[in-house]
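User: I'm curious whether this sequence folds into something compact or stays loose and floppy. Could you predict its structure so I can see for myself?
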Amino acid sequence: MLISTFIGTRIDVKIDRPVGSKHPQWELIYPLNYGYVPETMGKDGEPIDAYVLGITKPIKEFNGVCIAVIHRLQDEDKLVVAPEGQNYSNEQIMELTNFQEKYFESVIIR
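Assistant: Here's the prediction. I'll summarize afterward.
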C-alpha cells in the first residue's frame, strides 16, 4: 500500500510521544503529539508514524484527517494528521515538524 493513499482519509492515531515528552533515545522534546497508526505497517515492519497538528495539550489518541505525508528520502515516511477542517501549508507543516525533520531530507506530498 502506498502511504499517500492515506491523504484525505480519517485515521486513528495512538499517541506514544505526547506534547512535552522526551524522545527515549535523543535529546529531543516533542512540541506536538506524535504517534502511530494501529494496524498499519511501514517499510520498516513497524506501524506508520504520524504527527498530530492542531492539538496543543498532551493526548493519548486522536482521530483526524491525514492532510499530508512527509516523504523522507532516506528514511520512513510520516503522516501529518489534523482535526477535520484544519489545514496547514507546506511551510507551516515543515516549521511545526522541524524539531525532528531538520535531521532528514524530506518533501511534503499532498
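Summary: The domain at 3-109 is CATH 3.90.80.10 (Inorganic Pyrophosphatase). Residues 90-101 form the longest helix (12 residues).
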